[in-house]
Amino acid sequence: MSSLEVTFVTSDRTVWTGTAAQVVVPAVDGSFGILPRMQPTLAILDRGSVRIIAEDGSVTVREVEGGFVSMDQDVVTIAVDQASRAVAAN
């Protein structure tokens, strides 16, 4: 099973880091999911929820006001100015 190596940062701290099965982000052109083995991607983020779905099915949700996401060779970097506290979801 392939996975994504995710690093989620703000300007002053690491918000979340680890492996995930999928990441869903609110891009300015609409929300989209990032899966392992996808083409390299770079997108500007809009206001909305970033959802990180772990390999065990647990979900971490953070609210963001903008930023960017990049993905290349199953490495995902999410950089934002601010992110709200995590909310557990199923």
Automatic annotation (TrEMBL):
<keyword id="KW-0472">Membrane</keyword>
<feature type="domain" description="ATP synthase F1 complex delta/epsilon subunit N-terminal">
    <location>
        <begin position="4"/>
        <end position="83"/>
    </location>
</feature>
<dbReference type="InterPro" id="IPR036771">
    <property type="entry name" value="ATPsynth_dsu/esu_N"/>
</dbReference>
<keyword id="KW-0406">Ion transport</keyword>
<dbReference type="Pfam" id="PF02823">
    <property type="entry name" value="ATP-synt_DE_N"/>
</dbReference>
<protein>
    <submittedName>
        <fullName>F0F1 ATP synthase subunit epsilon</fullName>
    </submittedName>
</protein>
<keyword id="KW-0066">ATP synthesis</keyword>
<keyword id="KW-0813">Transport</keyword>
<keyword id="KW-0139">CF(1)</keyword>
<dbReference type="InterPro" id="IPR020546">
    <property type="entry name" value="ATP_synth_F1_dsu/esu_N"/>
</dbReference>
<dbReference type="InterPro" id="IPR001469">
    <property type="entry name" value="ATP_synth_F1_dsu/esu"/>
</dbReference>
<comment type="similarity">
    <text>Belongs to the ATPase epsilon chain family.</text>
</comment>
